Amino acid sequence: MATTKIILQGGGGHARVVLDCLLSQGATVAGIFDPKHSGSIMGVPVRGEYDPTFEPDASAIVAIGDNTARKNVVSRTKHSFTNAIHGSAIFSSFARLGTGNMILHGAIVQAQSTIGNHVIINTGAQVDHDCEVGDYVHLAPGARLCGNVIIGEGTLVGAGAVVIPGKKVGTWVTIGAGAVVINDIPDYAVVVGNPARVIKYNKP
User: Fold this and answer.
1) pLDDT at 1 exceeding the cut of 90
2) The CATH number of the domain where 60 resides is what?
3) Which candidate, 70, 71, 96, 172, has a CA 20 to 30 Å from the CA of 83?
4) Is 75 helix (H, G, I), strand (E, B) or coil?
């Protein structure tokens, strides 16, 4: 984690978890930007609309759980980005990590896996060996990727869902909570159940 000051974009529930993660590591969080919130969160002031001139040397994390919203806010953020990794997370020294990521409480990332940019690996989620996790993915609490899984950009793997080894999940897919993915999943599909089945497609 960067040693500079950090700002958060987003003041909702997910941001509170990320803020807790950062504060537990002794980070200096200079401010939170979210026009929908005011006051302070855990003692850190909420400053309304994003100000690109605020603490220009600080690093940023876009702490928004929704993947599309996170991508949109990232595109408008002028600060450089950093990662938040909780002390209880296990991240292999042989895994690769992009930037802007949130590796949260109790998460595990195993050897030879690659995590893209602005990814959320949420509470207790697991990424086994040799996986590829694209940008803007969200692995919800307790989600599990077995070995050699590929997850495309913007995909949500719901809470407690499992993807068995060697499967490829496309871009901007939604995998429902508790689903068990035993086949490759095409782009934009919404899948639920055990075994997971496609119930519809989201428009690109």
Assistant:
1) no
2) 3.40.50.20
3) 172
4) helix
